[in-house]
Amino acid sequence: MASIFHHNLSKDLSLILDDADDYNVIIQVGENQNTKEFRAHSVILRARSPYFKSALSENWITKKGNMIMFSKPNLSPTIFDMILKYIYTGELDLTKQSGENILGLLVASDELLLEELFNYVQDYLIDIQARWVHANFILVLHTVFKLDNCKRLQDYCLESICENPLPFFSSKTFPSIDKEILFCLLKREDLQIEEIFVWEYLIKWGIEQTPDLGSKNSDRVMWNNYNFKSLEKTLDQFIPLIRFVGISRAEFFDKVRPYKPIFPNHIYEEIEEFYYKDSLPKTMILPPRTEFTGIGKFESNIINSKLAKIIINWIDKKNAKYIRARNDPLYKLKLIYRGSRDGISSESFREKCNGRVASLVLIKVKGINKIFGGYSSIGFSSLGEDYIIRDGYLFYSSSDNFIFSFENSEDTQNMKISRVVNKYKAILDHVPDGFNFGQGSLGMDNEYLFVNNSCENYEYDINSADTIDYTIEQIESFTVNTMDNISYN
């Protein structure tokens, strides 16, 4: 077996980059007052980057004496410094870099065909710099839509906006969004916003994008036929994306009808027929978007989003069938543990799901269709110092916890919920167990689930069968957070 000594190799190559006097390439990067010369070795550049392998070929290079002269004015010195260190050492430290620099590094690594670096930076923006990405959606989207290989970050941005679109649409920068990006947003089924708002923001965007309109001529009453025709041209490809079946008659009369001149005749006639005759649209008008659930993207293999919405209603202490409104809290359920991926054991559950953070657990058991679950506003284990010891056991308090069951993955009629009644024994932190609600009401012991309300710390039994011990087929846990209303201005 070969021995590996990567650490010293990286260290020695770093010294070559910083101190060697046998370089044969001078690369000037940046422009105006922000320029810098870097010294490098063509053999290393060619070996590490397909871009440099071509760019430093005899047919392309410019020489000054024996020195290869190379210019990259579109890259800043800060970004190129990171790239050279990566090329020479395979090391990268982004912890002190601004979001703008990291995004610039993504663009540069794509241009220089550094696939490994590109994939890493894309993942870093999503996993580590998500808050910055959310606060700068316009900048990020305008950048990544120019990169064919950046689909993961594109999809992440679009999905994040669809989960909580109002801050994005109402931002000051929204009217400047590129039409290709707006088109991709409006055609999505999962855009969680009332359709009349989509229409109003589309009109606002169209006015800003149309010559002779904008802030100097935004009063529709003052428009002439030419102004309407110009707006029609701007919005021609977008109007068919509006789900008019999701707009009420009153909203249509007050907010859509005044813009009749910008509609193609055949589309407007079909919309009128829908509103006046209650006839379903036949050709051009799209059906409503997916139902507003109050949660973002939900990655469960156990239940669907309809059941997740019921659980969210329970968290908000509302009836299971409550219809969530747009001003209700928006929730993010982030998958942190899945038995089929991480192993079904108490140890793996505790490792992935420890800490004082609101959490949800879902369990599918073998042999029956039934699904069990529990919500803990304080998490499941390793919860800090706020505890009590009763009869030798360690308990944590919560008045918001509950456990529940569904008869199957589609059950919206026969579900059961049992809220905590002894808040001082809401969660038992017992090391052999993955989790334990109320000293036995619902708990995990490695691959087994026990469901028993004999301890009476929760309202009543969620188990309709005589069996109290089940074998776990699949188990998932999610952190539960309300989405921040981030400003995108």
TrEMBL record:
Domain named TLDc: residues: 301-481
Domain BTB: 23-96
SUPFAM superfamilies xref list: POZ domain
Stretch forming the signal peptide: none
Matching Pfam families: BACK, BTB, TLD
Gene3D superfamilies with a match to the protein in the record: Potassium Channel Kv1.1, Chain A
PROSITE patterns: BTB, TLDC
Record's protein name: BTB domain-containing protein
Species of provenance: Rhizophagus clarus
Organism lineage string: Eukaryota, Fungi, Fungi incertae sedis, Mucoromycota, Glomeromycotina
